[in-house]
Amino acid sequence: MEAAGMLWSFGRIQAATIEATLRYQIEALKFLESRLESDLHFLEDCQSPDHAGDLFDVWCSFWQDAVLGYFREGTRITEIGSAAMRKAAKRLHENEKHLVENMAAQAVI
Asked: Model pTM?
């Protein structure tokens, strides 16, 4: 019975790891989509005759937005990691609780 419980526990840990990995990938792809759209918009602005005089301002604005975007994405990735670690710690605590209860029940028997 303990072996089955341990296998179940390992399966849950593996599923949580896969879930966290997929969440990271989803966020990375969303961020990449946003950055590529910004890059495209920047190139369109550079080619526009309306922005010929203020090209330096367009360039500075682009890089300011890019740096802020990277910082926001770093914060988001950190939040996802923190949430995944909280879930893992909660599951580990629950598994320990069940293990202690099972050991106590076996000791009584």
From this structure: 0.67
